[in-house]
Amino acid sequence: MNFDDKSYKEKKVISIGTVRELTGLSERQIRYYEERKLIFPARTASGIRKYSFLDVERLVDIANQIEDGVQTYEIRQQWKKKEKQKEDWKKQMLKGQLQAHFKNYDGK
């Protein structure tokens, strides 16, 4: 059986109680970080929050930054900046691939 790291880490299957145990954060803290738009748990039909392993990693990172005095707003801004940089990089890579492809296609 071949497990894709990305797929199992992204699956929203972990309860808030387990996340609490894994991170050492209280349920109140976890919910607060959700309110501050730092994590995005899935919801079951009955409204129960479900988290992924990536959410757990992100919560540990948040807790460490908060402990270092970083505000939630600053954390969110840092992540937005990183995401934009990642998107810009992907666009540049795609642009380069397209240019190389069409250059070769035209025979130039």
Automatic annotation (TrEMBL):
GO terms for molecular function: DNA binding; DNA-binding transcription factor activity. SMART domains: HTH_MERR. PROSITE patterns: HTH_MERR_2. InterPro entries: DNA-bd_dom_put_sf, MerR-type_HTH_dom, MerR_fam. Residues 13-81 form the HTH merR-type domain. It comes from the Bacteria. Keywords: DNA-binding, Repressor, Transcription, Transcription regulation. This is MerR family transcriptional regulator. The keyword S-adenosyl-L-methionine does not apply. The keyword tRNA-binding does not apply.
